[in-house]
Amino acid sequence: MDSLTQFTLGATVSAVLLGRHIGYQKAAIIGGLMGTVPDLDTFAPHDDPVEKFVAHRGPSHSLVIQALVAPVFAEPLVRLFKSLKDHRILTYLAVYLMFATHALIDAMTIYGTKLLWPIIEEPFGVGSIFIIDPLYTLPLLYVTIWAFFVRDHSPKLQRALIGAMVASTLYMGASYALQLNAAHKADTWLAEKGISPERTLTIATPFNIFYWRTIAIDDDRYLNLYTSTIGGAPTLYSHPRRSDLEGCLAGNAQFQALSAFTKGFYSINADDDKMIFSDLRMGLTPDYVFQFYIADLIGDAPQDIELAIRQTVKRGTKGDIPWLRAGILGAQTSRIAEAATRLGDLDVLTSRAAANEIPCG
Predict the structure, then answer these.
(1) What are phi and psi of 273, to 5 degrees?
(2) Do 218 and 257 have their domain in common?
(3) For the chain, which end, N or C, has fewer CB atoms within 10 Å of the first or last residue's CB respectively?
C-alpha cells in the first residue's frame, strides 16, 4: 500500500508494543521508519524495467526473510534504550511485526507480494483493497499523530492505539468478505448472460471497498464489469485484447515475464508500430499504471527491442470521481472513459471487441 499507510501502521504497531517502555513519541517514529523499510527494494538498481516491475515486493517482503533480519534491526534498539534490555524478545517481536504487517497488507492489494520467498516464489495478491484507501488509513493516522505528542505512558492512548489496530484489521477483513460477494455476483451475472470467460478477477476500484471491477478474459476481448455492494444493476464494457498478437511474441522474453506476472490479465495493443503490453489489474481503462513497449511491429512481424520501455501514463480520467461516488451508492452510470464500449443487454451475447488480426511473419 502507499507509504503513508505503511508508516502509520508501523508506528501504531511499535507504539502499542514499545510505547510504555521508551515513550510513545519515540516508538511511533521508530515504528514508522521501520514500517517503510521493506519498500527500500524500490531503490535497488535495475537496468531492465520489466525486471524491476516483477522484482518489487520480493525478498524484502518475505515473512521468512523478515524473521531472519528482524534481530539485526532490533538489537540496536535494545542497546540504545536501557529500558528495553529486559524486553529483548518483545523488541524483536515488535520489529518483526513492523515488517510483517507491511507485507501482509501489501498482499491484500493486487500487485503481488512474495510472502513466503524463497520457500514459495509465487506472489500472493488478493486485490480486496486498493493501494490507497482512506478509511483504512485514517484511524492509524489519527493515533500516530496523537502518539507524536505523548512521551509518557498513557492508558487512554494505549486503548486508542489498540482500537485503531482492531478497526483497521476489521476493515481489511470486511474488504475480503465484500470481494467474495462481488465476485460471486459478477460470476452469476455473466453466467446468466451466457458469457463463459477463460478467467475472472474481482478487485476493488480506487479508494474504496464498496464498488468492484471484475475483469473477464473472453477470447479476443476483455470485459470490465462494475458492481456495487449496495446494489443496482451492473455495467459492462468490452475492450479489445488483441490475443491475435500473442503468437507473434512467443519468443519474446519480456512478454513471457510480464504475462506470467499478471497471471493472464493483460492486453496487447499495436500503437504506431509499437507493441504495448498493459497490466489490466492496476489502474482503469485505458490508463493502466503499468504499460510497457515490448517490441516493434514491422510489417506483419514483431521485432524484439533491447529493453522494454515503461510508458508514461496519465493518472485520473475526467469524470471518474463522480462516477466512483455514484457507483458506490448503487447508481448505474456510464464511465466517460469507457462509455463508447459499454454493452447493453442486447449487445452482451453478440458483441466482440473489434480487432484487426495480423498474421505473424
Answers:
(1) 65, 20
(2) yes
(3) C
pLDDT in tens, 82-129: 999 999 999 999 999 999 999 999 999 999 999 999 999 999 999 999
Grid cell listed for 321: 470521481
* Same domain membership, residue 119 and residue 39: yes
Residue span of the structural domain in which 301 resides: 193-343
3-state DSSP percent of the chain in helix, strand and coil, to 5: 50, 20, 35
Residue 18 lies in a domain: yes
User: Could you tell me the CA-to-CA distances from 286 to 170, 241, 269 in Å, in that order?
Assistant: 33, 12, 11
Reading the block at residue 119, the C-alpha cell is 520457500
CB contact burial 41-59 (16+ within 10 A = b; e otherwise)? eeeeeeeebbeebbbbbbb
Number of separate domains in the chain: 2
What does pTM read for this prediction? 0.93
| 262-297 pLDDT, tens digit each | 999 999 988 778 999 999 999 999 999 999 999 998
